């Protein structure tokens, strides 16, 4: 529990006034909850002793009516304030979590699956919020009810009767405690299985088109069902465990009632207790039941929250390897970028993917990168986005190590069109403007024209305002590519990277886009990764990448004079046409 308070201490400190008001209201509700039994006992004794007058009757009826009404109002205030507090905490935790996710580098996303990250942002944060808010009610309300009730029972009613009937309750509590400890292990396991299920459901939803194309629905459904079944199984195990052991407390409680009744009657016979006081006493035993059970629920919530906090912390404690130096410099434009013996190995791979890469890019140049599939072309150009740190070697921008520049500034230099196009559930124009939300209508139109996307927009039912579904459901492969190119171009970046981004367009469209780049970006740098040589043949320099190394570089004509991979592939492509 201290663990939880430590973790959300910052929130309690910030909201201390609301917590104080809640605490006061809670104690008032508590006292009001105990008063009816007290007045009822007194009223019974008044009746038994034949002392009932009209005045007393009105008083007792009035008090017994007034108490629930006041309690209702207090509970309303409490629930309202608590609801607000819970929403605020959930919002702040999620905001911190999401901001942290934005700070993380790609290595982090290699380590954690989407489903896992979603589960941590939903179920786990929910657990923490519930614990942080209901802990107050659960502990303060229930513990004070127990203390007040036992206090009144032993001081104002009968000490020995209290000792006889209430001391059995710690046995019940110990039983609940043991159950709780064992359950914690199952809860942890369940949370892991839940994350796996979330991941599987996500994969199935995202992969619908491919699954259908390969008639894999049944197979996948079976796997998804297995994941769901595993989740339900681990959850039902917890429920079964609770069902077996929780009723044990009822037995203990039954014994407590019987003891109170038997010994209460004995004390009445011996004139040590009145009937009214025994009624109050037994009512208080009844009132003790719910707080004791609730305390165990609170402990369950604490359990869940502790595991959830651990899982939340695991993410929040991750530190990105790619981050700004304290002395990071700004950069707005560049003249030369130099790769100096750059080697890169993916975090969970054994071998480097690109090895000893050295070359220079000058402002205004167009660079082509070609090579067999899997040679490391994408990995090489992504180094310019500062997504990872090089394993060895360095990249310099105007003779300063890229690591010494602000990451955001370096990324602002680049307009990157990746192989996979991420489109958002927004209209076409908003999707493009994500590249530069401040762009004018003219700049937007220019980007659309340069990407040769205008002709398609005319066919979309609402033009640039046509909604694009998740993952670009309403657009063709080539249209998605060109929307992504327009997104990069609207940024008017110093460096445009097209990572195999012309693969889904016809030869005419490819030629149009390349012509537009030549006309409009002669002062800026273009890096074109391609399998089709027509996309790179006019580049100032073409790098041939084989097995992660630059095997050759030069202009199209120079490379054709060599007897290497480029020439062989080029001849093959030309003869195939
Ligand atoms: N995130 C990753 N983690 C581990 N290995 C990766 C990762 N991404 C790519 N690789 C591996 O790195 C190698 C180079 O991949 P890369 O995508 O850079 O090649 P490429 O030349 O662009 O290929 P293609 O022409 O098919 O797009 C491949 O063997 C690939 O399996």
UniProtKB/TrEMBL annotation:
What range(s) does the ABC transmembrane type-1 domain occupy? Answer: 20-304
Entry GO CC = plasma membrane
Q: Where in the cell is it found?
A: Cell membrane
The record ties this protein, via InterPro entries, to: AAA+_ATPase, ABC1_TM_dom, ABC1_TM_sf, ABC_transporter-like_ATP-bd, ABC_transporter-like_CS, P-loop_NTPase, Type_1_exporter
Q: Topology relative to the membrane, per the entry?
A: Multi-pass membrane protein
- Pfam families per the record? ABC_membrane (PF00664), ABC_tran (PF00005)
Q: Give TM regions.
A: 16-37, 57-78, 128-153, 159-179, 248-269, 275-299
What keywords are annotated for this sequence in UniProt? ATP-binding, Cell membrane, Membrane, Nucleotide-binding, Transmembrane, Transmembrane helix, Transport
Q: What is this protein called?
A: ABC-type transport system, permease and ATPase components
């Amino acid at each position: 529990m201290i663990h939880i308070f430590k973790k959300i201490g910052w929130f309690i400190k910030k909201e201390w006034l609301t917590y104080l008001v809640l605490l006061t209201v809670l104690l008032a509700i508590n006292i009001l909850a105990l008063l009816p039994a007290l007045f009822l006992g007194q009223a019974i004794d008044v009746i038994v002793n034949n002392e009932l007058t009209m005045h007393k009757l009105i008083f007792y009826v009035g008090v017994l009516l007034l108490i629930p009404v006041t309690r209702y109002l207090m509970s309303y205030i409490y629930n309202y304030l608590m609801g607000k507090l819970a929403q605020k905490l959930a919002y702040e935790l999620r905001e911190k979590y999401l901001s942290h996710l934005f700070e993380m580098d790609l290595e982090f996303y290699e380590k954690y699956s989407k489903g896992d990250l979603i589960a941590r942002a939903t179920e786990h944060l929910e657990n923490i919020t519930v614990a942080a808010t209901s802990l107050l009610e659960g502990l303060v309300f229930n513990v004070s009810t127990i203390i007040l009730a036992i206090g009144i029972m032993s001081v104002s009613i009968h000490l020995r009767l209290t000792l006889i009937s209430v001391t059995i309750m710690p046995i019940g509590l110990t039983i609940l405690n043991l159950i709780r400890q064992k359950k914690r292990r199952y809860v942890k396991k369940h949370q892991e299985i839940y994350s796996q299920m979330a991941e599987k459901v996500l994969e199935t939803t995202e992969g619908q088109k491919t699954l259908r194309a390969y008639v894999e629905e049944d197979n996948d459904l079976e796997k998804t069902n297995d994941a769901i079944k595993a989740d339900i199984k681990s959850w039902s195990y917890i429920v079964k465990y609770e069902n077996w052991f929780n009723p044990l407390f009822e037995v203990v409680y039954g014994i407590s009632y019987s003891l109170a009744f038997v010994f209460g009657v004995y004390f009445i016979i011996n004139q040590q207790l009145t009937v009214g006081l025994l009624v109050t006493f037994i009512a208080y035993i009844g009132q003790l039941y719910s707080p004791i059970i609730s305390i165990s629920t609170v402990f369950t919530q604490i359990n869940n929250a502790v595991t959830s906090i651990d899982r939340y912390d695991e993410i929040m404690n991750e530190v990105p390897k790619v981050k700004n130096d304290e002395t990071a410099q700004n950069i707005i434009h560049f003249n030369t970028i130099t790769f100096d013996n750059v080697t890169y190995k993916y975090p969970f791979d054994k071998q480097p993917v690109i090895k000893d890469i050295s070359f220079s890019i000058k402002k205004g140049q167009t660079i082509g990168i070609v090579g067999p599939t899997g040679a490391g072309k994408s990995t090489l150009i992504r180094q310019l986005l500062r997504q990872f740190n090089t394993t060895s070697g360095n990249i310099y921008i105007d003779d300063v190590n890229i690591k010494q520049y602000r990451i955001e500034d370096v990324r602002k230099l680049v307009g990157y069109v990746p192989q996979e196009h991420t489109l958002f559930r927004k209209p076409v124009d908003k999707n493009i403007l994500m590249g530069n939300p401040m762009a004018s209508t003219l700049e937007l139109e220019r980007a659309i024209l340069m990407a040769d996307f205008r002709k398609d927009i005319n066919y979309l039912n609402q033009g640039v305002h046509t909604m694009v579904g998740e993952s670009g459901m309403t657009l063709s492969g080539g249209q998605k590519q060109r929307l992504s190119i327009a997104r990069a171009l609207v940024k008017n970046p110093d460096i445009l990277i097209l990572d195999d981004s012309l693969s889904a367009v016809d030869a005419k469209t490819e030629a149009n886009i390349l012509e537009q780049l030549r006309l409009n970006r002669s002062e800026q740098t273009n890096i074109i990764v391609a399998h089709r040589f027509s996309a790179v043949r006019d580049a100032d320099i073409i790098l041939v990448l084989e097995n992660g190394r630059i095997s050759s570089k030069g202009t199209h004509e120079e490379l054709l004079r060599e007897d290497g991979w480029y020439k062989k592939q080029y001849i093959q492509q030309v003869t195939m046409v």
